[in-house]
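Submission sheet (multi-component)
Chains listed below:
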Amino acid sequence: MDFEKKEHPEFPTVNKAHVEQVIVPELSQWCLTNGVALASSENVYTAVAAPTTVFPTPVPRAAYQSAKQLQKPFNKLYAQIANSKWLLKETKSLAKADPEFTGRLFKLYEDRTAKSKQTLKYGIFRSDYLIDHKTASVKQVEFNTVSVSFGGLSSKVGELHSYLNVMGKYDVAGKSFYEPGELHVSESIVFLVKALAAALTLYKVDTEDTAAKREQDDKVVLFVVEPKELNLYDQKLLEYNLLKLYGINSLRATLDEVKTEFTYGRDNRLVHKKTGKEAGVVYYRTGYDVRDYAKEDHWDARGFLEESFAVKAPDLSVQLAGTKKIQQLLTEDKVISKFVDDAKTKKELMDSFVKIYPLDNSEQGKLGKKLALEKPENYVLKPQREGGGHNVYKKDIPAFLKGIKEDEWDAYILMELIDAKPTTKNFIVRDGKLSTEPIISELGIYGSIIFDGDNIHMNDYSGSLLRSKLVSSNEGGVVAGFGCIDSMYLMD
Amino acid sequence: MDFEKKEHPEFPTVNKAHVEQVIVPELSQWCLTNGVALASSENVYTAVAAPTTVFPTPVPRAAYQSAKQLQKPFNKLYAQIANSKWLLKETKSLAKADPEFTGRLFKLYEDRTAKSKQTLKYGIFRSDYLIDHKTASVKQVEFNTVSVSFGGLSSKVGELHSYLNVMGKYDVAGKSFYEPGELHVSESIVFLVKALAAALTLYKVDTEDTAAKREQDDKVVLFVVEPKELNLYDQKLLEYNLLKLYGINSLRATLDEVKTEFTYGRDNRLVHKKTGKEAGVVYYRTGYDVRDYAKEDHWDARGFLEESFAVKAPDLSVQLAGTKKIQQLLTEDKVISKFVDDAKTKKELMDSFVKIYPLDNSEQGKLGKKLALEKPENYVLKPQREGGGHNVYKKDIPAFLKGIKEDEWDAYILMELIDAKPTTKNFIVRDGKLSTEPIISELGIYGSIIFDGDNIHMNDYSGSLLRSKLVSSNEGGVVAGFGCIDSMYLMD
Ligand SMILES: Nc1ncnc2c1ncn2[C@@H]1O[C@H](COP(=O)(O)OP(=O)(O)OP(=O)(O)O)[C@@H](O)[C@H]1O
Ligand SMILES: Nc1ncnc2c1ncn2[C@@H]1O[C@H](COP(=O)(O)OP(=O)(O)OP(=O)(O)O)[C@@H](O)[C@H]1O
Ligand SMILES: [Mg+2]
Ligand SMILES: [Mg+2]
Ligand SMILES: [Mg+2]
Ligand SMILES: [Mg+2]
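Outcome: structure written.
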């Protein structure tokens, strides 16, 4: 069928009463029946709908396309960094500035990573962007190389918005508001699982003699998770699809459980004691934050996994490639040029960067310090941390820096703030309640890469994510309560 | 691939600690992500997992097959009853004995049903059985002709049990316990929707000129529902599949909302005022119990729907065909012979009946009264009611009967209790808590029939349901708290 291009406003024109009475109940019910849920902190046997927007948020199709184009080059770039001696050198000096976390990760890397006989490396990445208001182009916020989340929920929220549209809930007359093709459903729930399955297959090829044997064995993916994960269902959606689409079983273990539940088999194969199943892929949904290693045992468990024969997503080299410091260094032409030969690709990658300064004693570092103290309102200060809640924003920067010793400043980077345009006509629903505050949306592009030295076995775009946060909040933690999962209305 | 027939016990041999620690969390999470949920009475924006069994319950494959075989003849039998003058005669006299409910339904039937120009009738039925312990044959508990529920949840619980099996949760060594083909997944979530779509198509054929026009129009299915339905998600699952599999939109309205939200168009077409959409099929998930008509307005709303041009599932003739009284009368050879010519079919149907007595002044009625007073422990006394909680069991019968006037006894039937074997090795999970009491399982077979006088447009088996209840409870209300949704392990 051919659809005539229909012009319509950026947002449905239904009023707030319609949203409250018609859309919110339908939306909440859909969420609660389709896994768009968070575990309830009070009772694990109930679920609450995850926070979402009511409408998809408009994103220029060109911006999404360009971010998507960048993903494979970024995947490859970070794979090369993970393989490089340069990473070790830089991380070694960063480890001194941040002994508490980068230092510990690096020590574990030195002690154990190389002891594993597994040469396959695997990255599940997410490159996050804001859309610069003036140029309508995507600017990178950060590149995550460990425990990227929301790939399950993202696809589901796309389906949710499509459902509401086709059911006529976005229109008082009950018609569809958006045309087919305008609403984007992220492929992440399928593509991330595809990459996990591919990694497991490569693990098997490497370790088994015949294809027939590979078919029959029951190697599994181990999800390494937090003890009380509220974002549980995002993970379960991937587990379900892994089974449904590829017949692959998964196991879950916290860092506390790893060493009691698993043992080493031949060549340090990771064997589940109770069932004898072999975990061929270790998929981390924890381990990215210093708080994840509250006990020495947790470091030990990470080391145990690191030294095992399993393919790690990620191993420590890949995880360490994702520090904010590396991100800052890559904005320097001479650094990125070490890894990216093709001039066009390099330019495209660099076009997505905003200015990032070190706070060391180099020329750029001196400039960074000056800007941090004198023009802080244009910047965000970031430590070598992941998971939200660690950054220092704008006018808080000078006092923060003055509160720590200057030789510790080196552990931070100073990043230009991206000027994204707030959206004013969407709503966030959380626990059935509406917020009408303006929101800022951050586009995430998932990527998967499996490599063995220079040999790249798979390098894929793996779907997208749109997260939206209240303008009034610096950060958009979905589980923490400031952000929500959104989806894209792709505007031409 | 060929599977060698593997002998295994009727139930997995995992211990209670394994069930609690390994199965229950996995089961609850699957339920909460896949719509096996009940609305929470406290907060509509949370869901609780619906009660289910931990394992599928063994059912002889032959018993299931024979119940399935009976469905089309039963559908046809009840369609013929709905068409018959005999039904009107019998219902008229029943109306006198039960003026409060049957009387009201019958009056509405007389006043309004024939005024509708719609000649298509549509039944969504469920015939319920217990398996007689001695003969291992299915015996009919009742035949429901209105608002049969759990078709959505039933399929999902089958998937749940299959998921737990394939994920190795039923086995300490993490292997599958059941063989492929042993676990039955009810087709109801698809087949009930298929019948709704077929009814809507027939409605359109009847009323529109061209096939092209039919493709484009946006006629919908109206779900008539209770105001605070805890079993909401069972219904939503059907709505979602109706859209997903057939592109058909649905609307929902309570009996309170029907007349404010809908109006009559040409030929009493049921038109949604706000959107102008036409409801071609009215699907009742309320209206089966006297409590559903708390106000006169509710009767009026039912009449308004009845007189409309929409195809009703069911209209009052079909609903009234499902009284317990009709069920009792059908156990008499001379009655069932009016409707079923084929001797073999008649025998098969009658083989599924247990003895049911009237409590009137006929010979059988006198015997019934005697048995009710003298041997009550073998019987259940049933009024003309649906939805659970109305029956009187065993030793409570004499006192109950003595408490009402003898000329009201006629509104009850006395039914022989079916002796089903309790299952002792399953568990019921409700709110994450286990019950280890023995259970009794009731097999339901869904059926759909669309007919126009003697012309049968569709007559289908529409899936199955296994509900299990605590032996200690007379009835197994799932939402009320005594029963749960189960699935079948089909034993050869
Ligand atoms: N340069 C920037 N311009 C504007 N906003 C920014 C910038 N950098 C960060 N932010 C905001 O702060 C949030 C957190 O920053 P960032 O993603 O770098 O931290 P993080 O701790 O790695 O978070 P996570 O890994 O949980 O996403 C971003 O999601 C964005 O909303
Ligand atoms: N003849 C019987 N033998 C054994 N148990 C019976 C018999 N009849 C009814 N029961 C038990 O009582 C329950 C309720 O009976 P029945 O289904 O006839 O009532 P109802 O009010 O129509 O219920 P609903 O329509 O909600 O299923 C049955 O599910 C079954 O557990
Ligand atoms: Mg981030
Ligand atoms: Mg990050
Ligand atoms: Mg019943
Ligand atoms: Mg009934």
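Remark: The pocket of magnesium ion (ligand 6) is lined by residues B 142, 144, 386 (CB under 6 Å).
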